[in-house]
Amino acid sequence: MRTLIFSLLLLISFRSVSQTFQTNGNWNTAGNWSPSAVPSGTGTNVTLNADPSLNSGSNNIIGNITAGNNVQITVNGNGKLTLGSSALFGVGTKKSITFSNNGTLRVNNGSPKGVLEIWGDLIVNNNLDMQITGTLIVHGNIVMNNNAQIQVSGGGNVTVGGNVSGGNNAQIQVSGSGSTFNVSGSISLGNGGQLQTSGGGVITASSCSCSGCSAQCGVLPVTLISFTVRTTSDKVILNWATGSELNFDYFSIERSEDGFSFNELAQVKGHGTSNERHDYLYEDSFPYTGKSYYRITTVDFDGYTETFNILAVNYSGEKLVRVFPNPVVDGKLTVELTFTPTEELIFILTDLNGVEKGSYKMKERQATFQIDLSSGTYLAKISTFGISKVLRVIVR
Hints:
With about 400 residues, this protein is mainly beta. The protein has 3 domains: about 15-220; about 225-315, Immunoglobulin-like, CATH 2.60.40.10; about 320-395, Immunoglobulin-like (Sandwich).
C-alpha cells in the first residue's frame, strides 16, 4: 500500500499542465488563454494558436511551447520569457520550443533588451523568420528545416550552447556592430545554406559547414570535446578535454547550490594556442552536501568568455566545516559549511584550556565574524545535528 501511495504521489508531482493561447494580444492577459489563466511554472506546456506578445515588465517561466502554423511570438524590450530551468537542464530535462510552418520569432531591443531563454532546443519546421535585436539564449540546439532564416541586428545577441543545424536554403544573417551569433558547438547547413555578416556583425562556432560559410564563420577560442562531473567518498571531480585552443588564457571553475547563482571556485590555466587534445582535472575537496551544480567558463587573452553547459551532482559524503583566513591577521574570521543549517548554529571560540572567548550565531552556509583576541592559538567549536567539529585557529 505504501508503495502504491508513493507512486501516486510521484505521478501527481510530475504531472504536466497544458494551456492554449487562442487570441492575438498580450501574453499576460488571462482571457487570451484556455483555460482562462496566465500559464506559470516549468510544468506548464503551452500551445500557441494565435500571436502572443510579452510586453515591458513581463517575466514568465513555463515549460514547452508548441507554435502552430503562421504564429508570431514577440518578446519586447524589458520583457523576458524563460522555458525550463538550469536545474532541470542540469539533470537532462529539456524544455523546448517547436515552430510549425511559416512562423515568426521576434526578440526586440529595449532598455534592457527583451530576453528569450530556452533551457532546451529551438526546433523549426519550414520557413521560420527569426528577427533578433534583443537576446536569445538556447542552452540546447537549434534545429531548422528548409528555408529558415535567422536575422540578428541592432546589437542583438544569440547564444547557443549546443549545435545549429539547418536544411536547404537556411540562412543566418548578422549585421551591425555589437550583433553576435555565438555557437558552442557546430553550425551545419544544407544545400544553399549561407552565413552572412555585415557592418561588424560576428558569427562564431567550433566549426561551420555550408556552401556559404567559410568567410563569415569565426573559430571559438576553445573546442570542448567532453565535460563530466562525478563524486567520490570525499570530493567532487571535474574532468574535461579540449580539441583545440586559440589565444586561450584560462578556465573559470564555477559552482552553485541552486543552479542559478554561481561562484568561482578556481582558475585552471589553458595552453594558449594548440591544435592538440588537452585533458584537464579539477577536484573540489570541499563540496556541498546534497545536490549542487558545476560549470566551466573559458576566458581568452582578449577577454572573450564562453560558458558551457551546467552539470549536476549529488554528493553524500561527510559534512565539513572550514575557517579562513587562518592565521587570522585582521580580526575577521569566516566560517564556511558544506551544508545549509536547518537551525541556528552556535560557533564558539575557546582557548586551549577550554575557557570560552567568544560565542557567535550563524544561519547560513557562510558567515564572517569580527573577533577581538590577543595573539595565540584557539579552538573553534561547532556542534549541530549530525556534525561536531573542533578546529584550531591561530590569531596574529
